[in-house]
Amino acid sequence: MSHADDGWGAPYDEQTYVDAYDQLELALLEPLDRVLEKADIEQFRPKFKNQQDPKTDKKQRYRKKKNGDDEWRDVLYGFGTSDESDFSDHEKRKHYFQPPLQVQRNSFVKNTLMQFKRNSQVEISRLAIMGCGEMSLEKGLCEYFGSFGTINVISVDIDPVSLSVGQQLLQKYLTQHGDILSSETGLPVLMRSYLGDILEPDHRFANVDAIVSLEVVEHIPLEDAKKFVNNVLGILLPRIFIFSTPNHEYNAVFGMKPGEFRHDDHKFEMNRNEFSCWLDELRVSFPHYQIEEPHYIGMTNGYEDLSGASQAAVCRLQDDLSSTLPQDITPYVTVGHVACRLGSRLVAYNLVRQALLEWLDKTEFHEAELKKDGYSPYWNFAISHILHHLHAPISFSATIDEKVAIKYIQGMTSHKVHLNCVNGVNGIAIPQNQKKADLIATIHRNELN
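The chain above was modelled as a monomer; its predicted structure follows.
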């Protein structure tokens, strides 16, 4: 499967899910163009320190002491950002944002994409994030991929250290939230990350459904920033493009001097009029896009007249245009891929159910095999014998944990079947008074419920 076509197909029937997971496993086995050196998150943490620094926040002194990892969990996962300016000293000193500014930007993107899908009736199957940094947006959107109809997320950044940190945080997030994500409705999502310069168009980022670039353009010279946006709207041609940049006028909220940038790495910052004029230029240059008036994100009480800390543009493709960027233009190198395993719980449940019914149909309960070491006689069967009847590729079957499968079986049989592990072998116990026909009837009845 090529990198440019990481699609599973539709509709979302059970076989599509199984096939999608089979393809996903193959995609995850593809070799990377480059393996990044693993960055030390401990050294990277000062970049994330903000108003909730657990070592200095007075409120933390009265809370139960946490270990080092738990202590920083909220900072890294709740407030991780692709732009360290979010938590600069200026914003730390006064008038910080609740929820944090990056979280508000992520919510803006989520709401905008949801509205776009609802209005256009077009699924955002391929989502690209350019200038992804530490992948805060990717983490923030994971639980909505099913609602978007997303099956492929591609991210690019020029900084290998940020990418390494982002990949570690993203993998940790997916692992910690695996149970929640697996219960969401949606096909599995392949998330690829690339090392590359966003000023160079890459064919794999062309004709995607959405491109998002948050707080990125101000980190490059204005001439290059305009070149990047022009490339997106004129060459890559996504159905929707969202980008944001700091509102320079809002720096007054942080006690900054006129002309002082929010972060040392910023090459420029625009006031509201300058940003609005830029959007006017884009409307003239790219009439095939409908470009909305600026959106403002992040407000502080008492400073409503400054609109918001970030200003965002939303550009929607109006004409049926496709990029003509040649397929061999691929300057970015793949450095990572992970899976967001949406929908796997329901698929696994149904596969186990079918396997159990098939097993019951083919298995005889012999009186001579009854176990009598408990309060009442019972049959004991290894769960592996039931899972042998799974009709799914080994790549998906291997993801179904035996004890989880037993829990599924307990539920679908209204707990007439019990967990029974003997000598390390996971199994089920079926009491003698449970007739096979009654078990099958219960399973079918629970399906209807």
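The domain at 344-448 is CATH 1.10.10 (Arc Repressor Mutant, subunit A).
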